[in-house]
Structure formats: C-alpha cells, structure tokens
Write a structure and sequence with these properties.
The chain is of the alpha/beta class and 222 residues long. It is built from 10 helices and 8 strands.
C-alpha cells in the first residue's frame, strides 16, 4: 500500500472561509480609514498567514511594521469572533473523510492560519471527527512552504513523507508538499487556479473531494 495518510490545508481545501476572512479584514480596514477589497481579491491575499493577509490588504503607502502589527491584532480580535459565521466544509469533504476512515488512513490538518483558530474551526465544523493532528501557525512551527510542520506531523503519525498526500489549493501548498517529499494534490474547488497549482508542482488535480479516494485506491492497488 503506497499511501497511508493525508495532510490537509484548511482554508480553501477543507472549508470555504473566504467570506468570513474578507468581512473581518474589510471591517478592520474601514475602522482605520483604508479602502476595502472585493471577495475575488481575497482569493489572492490568503494562504501565507495573517501578517501577509494584512500586508496585502493595506495600501502600499501604509505597509509599515507598526500599522501591519496594529491591523493584525485588530483582525485577530475581529475574526476570532466571526470565524464560522459563513464558513462551512466544502461539499464532499465529509464523504471524503469518511472514505479515508473506512480505508484505515490517517488524516491531519496543517494550516498557515493561527493555531488556536485552526483548532477551533476544525472542532466546530467537524464535531466528533478524529484528526490525528491539527496544527496551525504559531505552534512552534514555521509557516508553509517551510516543510518542518508537515514533516513533524508525519513523524507524529509514524508515516514516511513519500507515503503521505498533502492536499491544498494554492502555490504555497504545492511547494510545501514538494519541499517535504510528499505527494502534492491540488484542490480545484479552492481559491486559486489550475495553472497556479500545476506550475508549483501539483502531481494531480482534484475536481471534487472524492477524486482523492479514486487516486488512493488506484495507487494502493485496491
């Protein structure tokens, strides 16, 4: 059996969180008198952690460290109370997780979202679901595309990197998988484009979550 586990990105992969992120960031921007952004722009802003989200959302002439830190703190406070207003699992994700469990495969989450919010979102939106590990930024691990976090999860699971699939929807996710020596699966239902995923190392593209089970079954000879 080639694959023994799957590590998932969170935003744009397991859950569609874009509206809650955009609403929270736009509220912070309005409070400080800065222009807001539409939902499509946030698809590009997310994926590299909250500091980068704030950096991208601020006007170029307001990107000094003091304002970035101030807006990041405000975003954490705002988003911390609104992280599941509109955020929901993507269609087919629950069935995918059930399928992994039926096959005896480990499932974990590694996100560039701050650790406590990553854990809260998974706990609220996947109640009773057992993930072998749920890790976010600031948990003693560098952000993606540094592979240390996913490699640490692999060690925790007792699974070698080449037996793990990393599923994500962005360039950062595909780079993370490549840097870790894991199989890179690109989620086309997320925030970024097919071209971006391919150009950054996607080894397969998933048009629906259940496509992953077909790949696993084929690679594992079942």
């Amino acid at each position: 059996m080639r694959f023994k586990g799957v590590v998932f990105d969170l935003d744009g992969t397991l859950v569609n969180s874009l509206e809650d992120i955009a609403d929270s960031m736009n509220k912070v921007l309005r409070e400080y008198g800065f222009p807001t952004h539409d939902l499509g722009e946030y698809k590009v802003f997310v994926g590299r952690g909250m500091r980068n989200l704030v950096l991208m959302a601020l006007p170029e002439d307001a990107r000094d460290e003091a304002r970035i830190a101030m807006c990041r703190d405000s975003l954490l406070a705002e988003y911390g109370g609104n992280y599941v207003n509109k955020t929901r699992p993507y269609e087919g994700i629950t069935d995918l997780l059930d399928g992994l469990e039926e096959r005896g495969m480990e499932a974990a989450v590694f996100s560039n979202k701050v650790d406590h919010l990553t854990k809260k979102i998974v706990a609220v939106l996947f109640p009773g679901r057992r993930f072998s590990a749920v890790v976010g930024a600031g948990a003693g691990m560098p952000e993606k595309p540094d592979p240390k976090g996913v490699l640490s999860i692999g060690r925790q699971l007792g699974i070698d990197p080449d037996r793990l699939i990393y599923v994500g929807d962005s360039d950062v996710d595909m780079e993370t998988a490549g840097n870790a020596g894991m199989f890179a699966a690109g989620a086309l239902w997320g925030f970024r484009t097919e071209e971006e995923l391919i150009s950054h190392g996607a080894e397969c593209l998933l048009r629906h979550p259940l496509d992953l089970l077909r790949i696993i079954d084929g690679e594992n000879g079942t």
